[in-house]
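RECORD TYPE: inverse folding
INPUT: structure tokens
STRUCTURE:
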């Protein structure tokens, strides 16, 4: 854990330059606009430790798999989130000496991410070994409104000298992925130009043949006046274009370079138009100028914040944490394109290859459901619908048939990209999360029609998978599921993971319910689904009901707990309290063998099931399981704390709930798990939002209305959040003594607060006294 980020409600601030933290800060201060992203690398050359990272949405490379022992059924490739050509370069030399913060003395360094307005700022004074000092201030952003445009304002002022400065403004497309399996570079050059009118480079990915055009233009201001260059050197080398020029720098006179970049990709434009389009966008951006673009950025972010902000008073660490999470989620996914999804690292690092895990359905969907237009959450579901055929083929490859689908553990475009057998073949609970997300979306939006147009097909295919994945145990006279890995990846190849069995049973039941709904309300759609999927309702229902009725669930009635898997109690019954500080994190200190045999749990597993299906269990069962499993969970996945926090809140363990929240919300800002340098934990940020809204706010959907059961952590004066629910927009404001809910829309709404229903007229508010949360014994 590191605590070098300064507390501030709207800004992320680093003061002073610590080279050993540079890669962490490069992740933390990342920028993105849904169509791409950029780590907080320096504009100037930096010879110290750095992870260069520029990313273009949807553009990936299928790197050849590298495994020790090939298993039939493995995918052919492992997709890589591609490190793309970088557009930020502004390289400076003063009298032949490179401005390199690894070589110069760095004074008054600060990096500021302004979350309210959506830009990154960096200020410092660099001192060369001859004592010359220059002051640099850079501001950059990736435009939300013009989502192919990035812009930089780079200001240089010599503080104690006048001299000639040499500048190189470049686009470097000779980029490698650090995680490349065979040290191969994935980009090839297609076309480039360094003409003064238009400097660009178009590159293509090998194998996938995506094309990306990265173009730049710039203008210069000296002492507040436009400076026209009298001479210029154009540099073109392989996969590299640049303009090199000299400027006379005068003591205490500011020189500003405005650099604009346009990044167009074949995801959105025909390859023959890419450079033309980049050129037009760039001209427009330069014509409008940096200040106008920045003003647009402020307005766009103001809109985002209006919909999704959470305000916390009295606890600036908590406030900064949640805003940071919301900011990063909005930078990663705009929901405009159903082909895109939310990668665990978003646009902030390479790790995890591929963009989509079960994280999206289980941890991110609720945030987008409540803070943005319904279409945005729907697009996340449609993404999976579009991949249904590939999920069916994936299951076929493993020996399943008749339209059974196994969605990939990790994917870019529907193909499985993961190749560790204990996860690829066994961590099949992901299929259940996809079914659960359909249920969650329909329950939240009441858009039942989605079942007819998309959802049911997916549900049928997933149910067919479960029906084939279980087998009947003669000994138990029940259905069992063997050889699986649950969410707790510190256990592999186990039998009867309670969570997976629970999801399987639930999916079968929900699919039957959804089928009946579609059959009765959308008979034509039902006909066409039946035909398309060869659905034999009578026989398949009979089988599914039989399995659902006779599914086996491991439990221990004496302890009153569900067992994470068969034989869980045979393990040495230690708790986290038995571990030494030097053991943690286990995954960095213990052998994998020791981890697998131990009782220690990576992340919520049984508890994940109790979180999803809380209505099916009484509070005593939830408490017993929570207490047993929490004591054994090491939370070495970022997806863990939020689930524990929500359950702790439900059990009125408010202090515990708050501590988990703080850990989850500041996971990256404080580098809790020592891995922020690889990139941010974007998907767990959705979990942090759930933490406040569902955990502290106690928000649930009951029948057809929203219900709240809030509490306020001791440390907080008040907190408030906004929720879009169907046609209503609600502001929930929780204070020490009361909760106020305002209906900010022109339509009345029924809500429930502390188990009491209220009708809230349009633009009216209600204030209810806080009540202790009722906990049954
Ligand atoms: C977790 C998985 C998760 C993945 C990507 C792993 O560490 O165990 O549950 O899907 O990270 O976030």
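DESIGNED SEQUENCE:
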């Amino acid at each position: 854990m590191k605590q070098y980020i300064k507390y501030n409600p709207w800004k992320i601030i680093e003061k002073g330059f610590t080279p050993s933290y540079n890669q962490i800060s490069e992740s933390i201060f990342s920028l993105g606009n849904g169509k791409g992203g950029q780590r907080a690398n320096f504009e100037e050359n930096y010879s110290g430790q750095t992870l260069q990272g520029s990313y273009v949405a949807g553009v990936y490379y299928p790197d050849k798999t590298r495994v020790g022992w090939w298993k039939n059924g493995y995918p052919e490739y492992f997709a890589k989130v591609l490190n793309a050509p970088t557009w930020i370069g502004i390289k400076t030399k003063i009298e032949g000496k490179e401005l390199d913060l690894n070589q110069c003395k760095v004074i008054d360094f600060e990096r500021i991410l302004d979350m309210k307005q959506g830009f990154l700022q960096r200020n410092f004074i660099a001192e060369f070994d001859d004592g010359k000092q220059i002051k640099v201030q850079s501001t950059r952003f990736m435009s939300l409104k013009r989502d192919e445009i990035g812009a930089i304002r780079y200001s240089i002022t010599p503080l104690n000298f006048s001299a000639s400065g040499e500048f190189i403004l470049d686009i470097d497309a000779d980029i490698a992925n650090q995680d490349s399996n065979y040290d191969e570079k994935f980009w090839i050059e297609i076309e480039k130009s360094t003409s003064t009118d238009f400097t660009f480079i178009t590159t293509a990915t090998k194998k996938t043949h995506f094309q990306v055009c990265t173009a730049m233009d710039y203008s210069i201001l000296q002492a507040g006046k436009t400076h026209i260059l009298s001479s210029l050197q154009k540099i073109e080398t392989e996969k590299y274009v640049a303009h090199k020029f000299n400027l006379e720098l005068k003591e205490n006179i500011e020189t500003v370079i405005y650099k604009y970049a346009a990044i167009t990709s074949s995801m959105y434009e025909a390859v023959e138009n890419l450079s033309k389009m980049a050129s037009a966008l760039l001209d427009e951006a330069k014509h409008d100028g940096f200040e106008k673009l920045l003003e647009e950025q402020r307005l766009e972010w103001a809109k985002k914040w209006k919909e999704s902000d959470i305000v916390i008073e009295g606890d600036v660490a908590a406030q900064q944490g949640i805003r940071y999470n919301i900011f990063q989620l909005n930078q990663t996914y705009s929901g405009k394109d159903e082909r895109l999804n939310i990668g665990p690292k978003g646009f902030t690092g390479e790790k995890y290859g591929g963009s989509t895990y079960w994280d999206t359905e289980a941890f991110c969907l609720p945030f987008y459901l409540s803070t943005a237009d319904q279409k945005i959450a729907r697009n996340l579901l449609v993404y999976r619908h579009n991949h249904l055929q590939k999920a069916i083929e994936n299951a076929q490859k493993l020996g399943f048939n008749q339209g059974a689908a196994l969605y990939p553990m990790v994917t870019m475009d529907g193909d499985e990209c993961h190749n560790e057998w204990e996860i690829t073949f066994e961590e099949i609970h992901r299929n259940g999360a996809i079914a659960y997300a359909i249920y969650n979306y329909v329950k939240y939006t009441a858009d039942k029609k989605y079942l007819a147009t998309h959802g049911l097909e997916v549900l049928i295919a997933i149910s067919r998978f479960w029906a084939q994945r279980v087998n009947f145990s003669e000994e138990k006279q029940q259905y069992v599921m063997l050889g699986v890995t649950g969410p707790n990846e510190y256990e592999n190849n186990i039998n009867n993971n309670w969570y997976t069995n629970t999801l399987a049973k639930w999916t079968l039941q929900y699919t039957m319910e959804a089928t009946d709904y579609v059959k009765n309300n959308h008979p034509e759609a039902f006909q066409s689904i039946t035909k398309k999927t060869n659905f034999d309702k009578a026989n398949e229902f009979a089988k599914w009901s039989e399995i659902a009725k006779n599914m086996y669930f491991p439990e221990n009635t004496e302890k009153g707990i569900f067992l994470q898997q068969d034989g869980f109690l045979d393990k040495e019954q230690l708790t986290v309290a038995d571990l030494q500080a030097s053991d943690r994190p286990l995954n960095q200190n213990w052998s994998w063998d020791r981890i697998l045999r131990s009782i220690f749990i990576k992340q919520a597993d049984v508890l994940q099931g109790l979180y999803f299906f809380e209505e099916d269990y009484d509070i005593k069962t939830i408490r017993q399981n929570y207490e047993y499993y929490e004591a054994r969970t090491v939370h070495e996945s970022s997806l863990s704390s939020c689930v524990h926090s929500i359950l702790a809140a439900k059990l009125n363990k408010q202090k515990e709930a708050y501590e988990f929240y703080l850990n989850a919300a500041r996971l990256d800002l404080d580098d809790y798990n020592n891995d922020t340098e690889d990139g941010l934990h974007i998907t767990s940020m959705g979990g942090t939002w759930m933490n406040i809204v569902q955990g502290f706010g106690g928000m649930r959907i009951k029948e057809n209305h929203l219900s709240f059961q809030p509490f306020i952590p001791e440390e907080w004066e008040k907190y408030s959040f906004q929720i879009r629910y169907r046609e209503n927009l609600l502001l929930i404001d929780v204070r020490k003594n009361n909760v106020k809910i305002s209906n900010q829309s022109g339509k009345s709404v029924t809500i429930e607060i502390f188990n009491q229903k209220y009708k809230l007229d349009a633009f009216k508010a209600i204030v209810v006294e806080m009540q202790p949360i009722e906990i049954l014994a």
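NOTES: The mean pLDDT is 96.
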